[in-house]
Write a structure and sequence with these properties.
flat; Serine Threonine Protein Phosphatase 5, Tetratricopeptide repeat; 96 residues; 0% strand; mainly alpha
Length: 96
């Protein structure tokens, strides 16, 4: 994931997306679908997608992150609340 963030900073979105996807696949393969660190990667990937104007895909990534957080942390965790707020904001912005 750090490599993906580096590519974002040097404005290479193609490589950034490639490394976000590699990171997500690696976590899922090595640790399973509900691994707590995967929530952070899905969240960051969602922010990246949002910055690229890929709103529907960003919402999907954030929903995956939220599901993982709810499984691991329950409703009162800070990241859960932040994800809910982020999803509400993106959904509101997406509306015509």
């Amino acid at each position: 994931m750090n490599i993906a963030k580096t590519f974002v900073k040097i404005n290479n979105q193609f490589k950034a997306e490639e490394f976000y996807l590699k990171s997500i696949l690696s976590f899922r393969t090595d640790f399973g679908e509900d691994y707590y660190r995967l929530a952070e990667v899905d969240f960051d990937y969602g922010l990246f997608l949002q910055s690229e104007g890929k709103i529907s895909e960003a919402i999907s990534a954030h929903k995956k992150a939220l599901t993982i957080c709810l499984i691991n942390y329950r409703e009162k965790h800070t990241l859960v609340l932040y994800l809910i707020n982020t999803l509400q904001t993106i959904t509101f912005i997406k509306q015509p």
